[in-house]
Amino acid sequence: MSVDLATVKRVARLARIAVSEEDAQRMTGELNGILGFVEQLSEVNVDGVEPMTSVTPMAMKKRADVVTDGNKADDIVANAPNEDRNFFLVPKVVE
Question: 58 pLDDT band (50/70/90 cuts)?
Fold first, then answer.
């Protein structure tokens, strides 16, 4: 796949980026180089290669996916000027 000057200008317009004629010419070459590298990467045989999270084998640290209230309600409302049963009390505003 290759990118031409019209495609670069169209993408720039869609992204609402002002691109001069010189920059569009330069970007055409750069984008074609990037796409060529991506095509080269697709030629690599990765059958049987597992995805990695690190360069060293390690187990992912996971926490239990449970819903809790955090058990910190008292700490959260400790500095509140007014609270009632762990809820913030705010003045009533009537306009």
Answer: confident
